[in-house]
Design brief:
The protein is built from eight helices and ten strands. The chain is α/β, with parallel strands linked by helices and 255 residues long. A six-stranded mixed β-sheet has the order 6-7-8-3-9-10, sandwiched between helices. A four-stranded antiparallel β-sheet has the order 2-1-4-5, with helices on one face. Strand 7, helix 6 (177-192) and strand 8 (198-201) form a beta-alpha-beta unit. The two termini are 34 Å apart.
Length: 255
Amino acid sequence: MENVLEVKNIEKYYGNKSNLTKAIDNISFNVEQGEFVGIMGASGSGKTTLLNCISTIDKVTSGHIMINREDITKLKGNNLNKFRREELGFIFQDFNLLDTLTAYENIALALTIQKVKPEIIDKKVRAIAKDLDISEILNKYPYQVSGGQKQRVAAARAIITNPKLILADEPTGALDSKSSRQLLGTFEYLNRKLDATILMVTHDAFTASYAERIIFIKDGRIFNELIKGNDTRKQFFEKIIEVQTLLGGELNDVI
């Protein structure tokens, strides 16, 4: 399998010489095409900083991040914006939908910016909406739909451009248990049926149990790694809890 993501010896410092904080300490790992990988760690472990560096929101201090063989640590300006727009899909905890646009328009926006023909946009939007069971809300605005539906719209928006990598930051954090299960089912669909490559940061063991592999971060370094393999989701969940206990996370980090 080809690596979609290669993280090579990255470090990230904040502050200055008199007050320097090392948020990421020499982390390296790969994500293959079609993998669904979770990143876990207690608050302050560096997992969000890691995701921010991979998503090009933040810059590494040293090391390299390759996405589809492109070294994103060297990209700047318009080239960086173009790469982010065309190669990455984002799903955030707070949805980040535009309130003045309908669900259809939110999903179509990235293709509109790329100047894709309207008839192709329409075909793509309606196809992904059908796949994610949101066809009936395409003409509604974000304030008119539930949190779970908003997050599925966000998932549709993330996948519509066929990005090389989908990055999800605490995607179930703002959802109730029913909506969380629906969204995680959506992630499974994107991963298994559409061969989407997903990297997800979460503190929630149940959410993480839907991934195929979990990378645990502690104090800016990789602490452990779990591979689901032939485990059931329940068995994988229990193993995740065990590692979280070893990490010394607070109770809220493991339930």
